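**User:** Hello, beginner here. Are you able to go through the protein record under this note? It all follows right here:
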Amino acid sequence: MSSASPPPTREFTDPPNYQFPTHRLSRVLRNPEKQPLVLVACGSFSPVTYLHLRMFEMAKDYVRQNTDFEIVGGYLSPVSDQYKKPGLLSAHHRVNMCNLAAEQTSQWLMVDPWEAFQSYQRTAVVLDHFEHEINVKRGGIETPDGARKPARVMLLAGSDLIATMSEPGVWSEADLDHILGRYGVLIIERAGADMDQAIDSLSRWRHNIHLIHQLVQNDVSSTKVRLFLRRGLSVRYLLPAPVVDYIEEHGLYMDDGPNASAASGAVAAEKEKGKEKETAAASSSSSSSS
């Protein structure tokens, strides 16, 4: 299951003042017989939910019980603003919320802002970035006897990702081969999703696709959370409390429309300017009529 090919050679552009987070990355393997594994979840995280965090815990259980890997790190990688997805809040807020969720609810998860604060990067490139940071720049993970092992980087995602990967024309064949062939993926099933057909069309990489069943079904999604917020409904206990507090403090996701949440402050400011113009026009009209 390990990748024998050398690390990809690629030039990476870092955002200003960027530092790769390693404060929770295990420096030394506990079991020298295992291969170190780093989990990477790419997504909008607009906002991050408990299901996003639960995915890592379910993956940890699966890896411990079914593989020869040892997890040494887990990363959330929020997508760039250039992704232009409806309901996508600014990267600044999404990274802040992910950091609150990771730092205040987990002992091992981290947030890498590399993807968020620059132009849109393909998932294959993001995984190459993690490979470069951990294995090329840092030489992998140390074993108890002082040797070093390269960490395996794997993508962690929901079943909707596999569904899109199986659709012709959505992903390039080169990227599919790079993601599924070189790195592999851990897929968390979503409630009501049928993954069999999707997996069949990706049979070439079946050995690198790990399906994880939810023992307790959870279908919380960022889309549903945004809908709740626009309707003025509570989202407590769907998201980590610090994230809920952050949303309320900054008045996020309160306006309707696909792009309103990404610029709620600007919308409010424009409305205020409009009121000022109306007031000024009314005042001018009143003065001229008198």
Remarks:
- Confidence is low (pLDDT under 50) at residues 256-290.
- The first strand starts at residue 35 and ends at 43.
- The radius of gyration is 22 Å.
